[in-house]
C-alpha cells in the first residue's frame, strides 16, 4: 500500500513538473512576440525595475496576475542585474473554493506565494468596487513594505489602459490614463508598477487556453453580483460598457485601440482649453498671445 501511494505521489510530482516546464516554455517560445517581448519592452520603456529592487508581485488569482508572476520568474532567471521578488497573495475573504484554486495553481506553476489575510470583503459588502480596490491596494502596500519591498506590481494590461482612458472621458469628464508606474502618496518610498502595460488581453487568454489553465474569474467573492464578470452585454458595469463600445468601434476601424492608446502620448497643450499641473488649473488664454 505504501509503495503504491509513494509511486502515485512521484508520478503526480513528475506530471506537475512537466506541466510547469510546458507553461514556462510557452511564454518564451509560442507567446514570445505577444507576451514576453511586450513584457520586457514595457519594463525598459517605462524604466520599471532598477538594481536592488525588492518587488511584491501581487497575485489576485486571475489570469493576468498569475501570468505576471511567471513573467517575473523568467525575467529573474535571464536578467543581468539583481532584484528580489515576493509573490504576495492577499486573501480579502475569498470563498474556500477560490482560495483553493489559487493555491493549486501556484503549486502547479511553481510560484512560491506568500498569503496574508484581511477582511475587506466583509467591510465593503455594500460599497462600490473602486472603494474595495482602493482598500485592497492599501493593504498590499502596507504588507509589502513590512516585507522590505519598495515596489508592488499589479497585473493591469493594455486593454485596461485604453478602457480607463475612455471611462475618464465619457464618465469622468477628464483626460487621464492608468499610468505605468506611480509613487505612492501614502507609503513613503513605495512605488506601484504595471509591467504588463503593453500586453493585450487576448494574448493572455490565448496563453491561458493553450496551457489548459483555469483561474478564478474575478477577485470578488460575490461572483453573482460582480458586474465585471459578465460578458453578455447586460452588465451595468461601466468598464464592461466601454469594453463593448471599443469592440463595436473596432468593427469599422481596426486601429481604434491603438489610436486610443496613442491619444494620451500625443497631447498638444496648444489645442487644450485647460489642463492641470500639480493641482493647479491652467487656461489656454494664459499663453494665447505668446503663441501668435
List the main descriptive attributes of the protein structure presented here.
single chain, 292 residues, alpha/beta, six-stranded mixed sheet, two-stranded antiparallel ribbon, 8 strands, 47% helix, globular
SSE layout and pairing:
Blueprint: H1 2-28, H2 32-45, E1 54-58, H3 63-78, E2 84-91, H4 96-108, E3 113-117, H5 120-123, H6 129-146, E4 151-153, H7 158-172, E5 181-183, E6 191-193, H8 201-210, H9 238-250, H10 256-263, E7 274-277, E8 280-283
Q: Can you walk me through this structure?
A:
By secondary structure, the protein is of the alpha/beta class. It has ten helices and eight strands. The protein has helices at 2-28, 32-45, 63-78, 96-108, 120-123, 129-146, 158-172, 201-210, 238-250, 256-263; strands at residues 54-58, 84-91, 113-117, 151-153, 181-183, 191-193, 274-277, 280-283. The strands form two sheets. The protein has a six-stranded mixed beta sheet, sandwiched between helices. Strands 7-8 form a two-stranded antiparallel sheet. The radius of gyration is 21 Å and the shape is globular.
Low-confidence sequence ranges = 222-228
The strand count comes to 8
- Shape annotation: globular
Helical segment count:
10
How much helical structure, as a percent, in the residues?
A: 40-55%
Beta-strand content bin = 5-15%
Q: N-to-C SSE series?
A: HHEHEHEHHEHEEHHHEE
If you average the pLDDT, what whole number results?
87
Query: What does the main sheet amount to?
Result: 6 strands, mixed
Evaluate the radius of gyration: 21 Å
Strand order of the largest sheet: 3-2-1-4-6-5
Helix/strand/pairing category: alpha/beta
What distance lies between the first and last C-alpha atoms, to the nearest angstrom? 90 Å
Amino acid at each position: 500500500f505504501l509503495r503504491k501511494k509513494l509511486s502515485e505521489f512521484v508520478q503526480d510530482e513528475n506530471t506537475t513538473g512537466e506541466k510547469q516546464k510546458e507553461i514556462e516554455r510557452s511564454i518564451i517560445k509560442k507567446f514570445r512576440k505577444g507576451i514576453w517581448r511586450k513584457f520586457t519592452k514595457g519594463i525598459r520603456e517605462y524604466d520599471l525595475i532598477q538594481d536592488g529592487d525588492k518587488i511584491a508581485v501581487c497575485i489576485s488569482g486571475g489570469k493576468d496576475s498569475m501570468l505576471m508572476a511567471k513573467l517575473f520568474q523568467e525575467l529573474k532567471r535571464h536578467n543581468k542585474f539583481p532584484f528580489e521578488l515576493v509573490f504576495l497573495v492577499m486573501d480579502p475573504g475569498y470563498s474556500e473554493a477560490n482560495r483553493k484554486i489559487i493555491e493549486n495553481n501556484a503549486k502547479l506553476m511553481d510560484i512560491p506565494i506568500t498569503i496574508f489575510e484581511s477582511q475587506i470583503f466583509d467591510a465593503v459588502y455594500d460599497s462600490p468596487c473602486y472603494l474595495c480596490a482602493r482598500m485592497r491596494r492599501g493593504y498590499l502596500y502596507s504588507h509589502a513594505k513590512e516585507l522590505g519591498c519598495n515596489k508592488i506590481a499589479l497585473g493591469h494590461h493594455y486593454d485596461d489602459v485604453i478602457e480607463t482612458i475612455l471611462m475618464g472621458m465619457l464618465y469622468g469628464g477628464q483626460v487621464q490614463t492608468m499610468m505605468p508606474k506611480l509613487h505612492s502618496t501614502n507609503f513613503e518610498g513605495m512605488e506601484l508598477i504595471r509591467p504588463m502595460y503593453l500586453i493585450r488581453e487576448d494574448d493572455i487568454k490565448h496563453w491561458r487556453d493553450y496551457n489548459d489553465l483555469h483561474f478564478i474569474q474575478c477577485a470578488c467573492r460575490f461572483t453573482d453580483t460582480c458586474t465585471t464578470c459578465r460578458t453578455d452585454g447586460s452588465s451595468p458595469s461601466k468598464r464592461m460598457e466601454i469594453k463593448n463600445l471599443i469592440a463595436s468601434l473596432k468593427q469599422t476601424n481596426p486601429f481604434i485601440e491603438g489610436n486610443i492608446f496613442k491619444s494620451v502620448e500625443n497631447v498638444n497643450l496648444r489645442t487644450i482649453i485647460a489642463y492641470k499641473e500639480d493641482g493647479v488649473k491652467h487656461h489656454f488664454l494664459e499663453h494665447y498671445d505668446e503663441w501668435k
